[in-house]
From TrEMBL:
Its EC number is 5.4.3.-. InterPro entries: Aldolase_TIM (IPR013785), Lys_aminomutase/Glu_NH3_mut (IPR003739), rSAM (IPR007197), rSAM_sf (IPR058240). Residues 437-448 have a biased composition (Basic and acidic residues). One of its GO terms (molecular function) is isomerase activity. Residues 436-457 are annotated as: Disordered. Its cofactor is pyridoxal 5'-phosphate. It comes from Streptomonospora litoralis. Keywords: 4Fe-4S, Iron, Iron-sulfur, Isomerase, Metal-binding, Pyridoxal phosphate, S-adenosyl-L-methionine. It is an enzyme of class 5 (isomerase). This is L-lysine 2,3-aminomutase.
């Protein structure tokens, strides 16, 4: 379907608003608006010295209910909380801020805290793909699964706003050693020609939709000539945080025409939209943006992690999935909060996560039951908790790999001992007398090198 088709939605009238970002220099003013006192605001600034903070005028003006702040879920989604980090770390950095310590002292303290937060979960720095059998890895590309390559465009390594729970927070803190990105689309194309088993490329970041149409086209257009490629995916939060990208921004129409060209080339453009709460769908502007994207022939799939204090109840997920189906989007994943950053603050135990998923899943029609979860994007692959059962007198989690770096593991059930406190795969132990999980069999040392080998057959 073309944007010029009579049935395609026309662009809305301009809101007259330009994108405006708020960063840490605005944090004290904004948290005061939420009713925080001076000591609370200082603690929040201390957390924002370690973890990234960025929000924009659309989120501030249209999504946050300031009368409900700081308990409003969208506020908690984008604003640091004083207790997200250990109190000793917060107190140390707050003291440096209070004394107006030199920037180098603040950076040193912040880096020491970051180092304890597992900045690169699931071995993501070790998965850069090799340019040949002999050469060094290609920066900013990951052959994560047999048929899937992730690409991190260097111009897309920021977002319209940052989620407080983001597992890629290390990309945004200004430390070059923690970044990974590439501007070499020719290297990706050459790699795809050498690896015809790869049928899907996922653009991720940051947020690729932070890029203008001209830059985005330079990355996507060359992929349309790769015959073995079936789908191009774009992982993005832009629909929730800046829908103007597809409605009133100067290059909104050109961006949507680029999406049309992907469909015209016989490939699927999968728009992987990150929605964390049903309130993100309330503004008319986001609903208009969804209609315009779908009119290009693109498929919008929705996903988010389960996050304590933001969306940790079944009614929230049921409402969100039903709203997405109503607007023609496809519910895709409920993720488990990854083992990085302030995981201890946001994580929901797997047993509770399963019950939330099951109750929400039971409340929607079959059209919304395309969603999978709760799913852990762990080092060996995406592990889904299918249920809790008693087998041979032992209470267990029933699990399977939705996706795996070793394709032989996909779809095969396995069991883990039930643990009501477990929040991640590494918290679990094999059940029913087993000493290893299936992904550990035959690997005395389950190293990242083993996993990279499995990812590059």
């Amino acid at each position: 379907m073309s944007l010029t088709h009579d049935a395609a939605p026309s662009p809305p009238q301009s809101t007259g608003r330009r994108f405006r970002a708020y960063t840490t220099k605005h944090l004290d003013e904004l948290t005061a608006r939420a009713g925080l006192d001076a000591a609370e605001r200082l603690a929040v600034r201390a957390v924002a010295t370690v973890l990234p903070f960025r929000v924009n005028s659309y989120v501030v003006d249209e999504l946050i209910d300031w009368d409900a702040a700081p308990d409003d879920p969208i506020y908690r989604l984008v604003f640091p909380q004083a207790d997200m980090l250990p109190s000793t770390d917060v107190a140390r950095i707050a003291d440096l801020l209070r004394r107006e310590a030199p920037r180098k002292d603040l950076n040193q303290a912040a880096n020491e805290v970051r180092a304890k937060l597992n900045p690169h979960p699931a071995g993501q720095m070790e998965l850069n793909v090799p340019s040949s059998e002999e050469e060094d890895p290609l920066e900013g590309m990951q052959h994560k699964y047999h048929e899937t390559v992730l690409f991190f465009p260097k111009q897309g390594q920021t977002c319209h706003a940052y989620c407080t729970y983001c597992f890629r927070w290390a990309q945004f803190v200004g430390e070059p050693d923690l970044k990974f990105a590439s501007g070499e689309i020719d290297h990706l194309v050459a790699y795809l020609h050498r690896h015809p088993e790869v049928t899907s490329v996922l653009f991720t970041g940051g947020d690729p939709m932070i890029m203008g149409e001209g830059v985005l086209s330079r990355y996507i257009e060359p992929l349309l000539q790769v015959e073995t490629l079936e789908s191009i995916r774009i992982g993005t939060k832009s629909l929730a945080y800046w829908p103007q990208r597809f409605t009133t921004d100067p290059d909104a129409d050109e961006t949507l025409r680029l999406f049309e060209r992907v469909a015209e080339a016989g490939k699927n453009l999968a728009f992987m939209a990150h929605f964390s709460h049903p309130n993100e769908m309330l503004p008319d502007l986001v609903q208009q943006a969804v209609s315009r994207i779908r009119a290009t022939g693109s498929v919008i799939r929705t996903q988010a992690p389960l996050i304590r204090t933001i969306n940790d109840d079944p009614a929230t997920w049921e409402s969100m999935w039903r709203t997405h189906v109503r607007h023609g989007m496809v519910p895709y994943y409920m993720f488990v909060e990854r083992d990085t950053g302030p995981q201890d603050y946001f994580a929901v135990p797997l047993a509770q996560a399963y019950e939330i998923f099951r109750e929400a899943y039971a409340g929607v029609s079959g059209l919304a039951r395309t969603v999978r979860g709760p799913s852990m994007s762990a080092t060996p692959g995406k592990v889904c908790i299918d249920g809790v059962a008693e087998v041979a007198g032992e209470k267990v989690f029933v699990c399977h790999f939705i996706q795996a770096r070793d394709p032989e593991l996909v779809g095969k059930p396995f069991f883990a001992r039930y643990d009501e406190k477990a929040a991640w795969l590494t918290d679990l132990e094999p059940a029913l007398g087993a000493t290893r999980f299936p992904h550990e069999q035959g690997r005395p040392e389950n190293t990242h090198a083993d996993l990279v080998g499995a990812a590059h057959p």
